[in-house]
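Weekly structure sync, notes
Attendees: PL (lead), two postdocs, one rotation student
Agenda item 3: pending single-chain targets
PL asked that the sequence for the first pending target be pasted directly into the notes so everyone works from the same version. It is reproduced below exactly as submitted, 272 residues in total.
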Amino acid sequence: MEVTAGMIKELKEKTGAGIVDCKQILQETGGDMNKSIEILRKKGLSKADKKSGREANEGLVSYKLEGKKGFLVKVNCETDFVAKTDAFKNFVEEVKEAIFKKSYAFSKTLPEEIEMMRKDVIAKLGENILVSEWKFIDGKGELFPYMHLNKVAVVADFQGEVNREEEKQMMKNLSMQITAMNPVAVEASSVPAEKVEELKKTFTEEAKATGKPEKVIENIIKGKFEKFYNESVLMEQLFILDEEKKVKAVLEEFNKGKEKPLKISSFVRVSL
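Predicted structure, written out during the meeting:
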């Protein structure tokens, strides 16, 4: 069977393989398109395994909302050039939809269907691709998404009055705060207990290393915790749009006299 330019073009579009490879495989299979796709796919998977150890620090983040369910995903590639291609962007969308639909819990060992998709796109794009992080959030109120340059994404859960323009702007401002300052929790009381224990151990070791008296050591530990909360807890951080005030004070001032005060109950964040 004669291998035509149209057949080569079709195989290239379906597999992402080079023209020479497509022509050669079609000649070997006598023009059998399905067989050619399978052979190229196996070759691509082999190439994908060889690329698996390479650094991948570029990429995109993306989000999806559906009712009270929110989702963030981070997908890495090796170069900014590939990150800007339609093929990579389409892969990010396909992965996002697949994970969201099945509600897969995040694991470094990817679900089989996601791993197969990943290897297929590596074969097409010629770079190591990693589906490196994803997070879900179950909203109690209104989920608000915010993304910065496709490199950092946040979904925050707000309660209270959320439909007026001034509230929408405050929701955006607080989401920008989370994007820029990367807090670990909304309130000091909501910092995970294991994180507090880890910090307590570290701060205690550091304080004891100073050789100071026990009473001084207690104050050193207390001071370190205060510094941590001021830097890492949303309500205790200085507000990025007015660094004279903490976020907590800005929100209290905003809510003054309102029947339904705006409140942020939780958030998720991913970044490259």
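Discussion points:
- Residues 5-51 form a domain with the Helicase, Ruva Protein; domain 3 fold (CATH 1.10.8.10).
- The two ends are 49 Å apart (CA to CA).
Action: rotation student to compare against the earlier draft before next sync.
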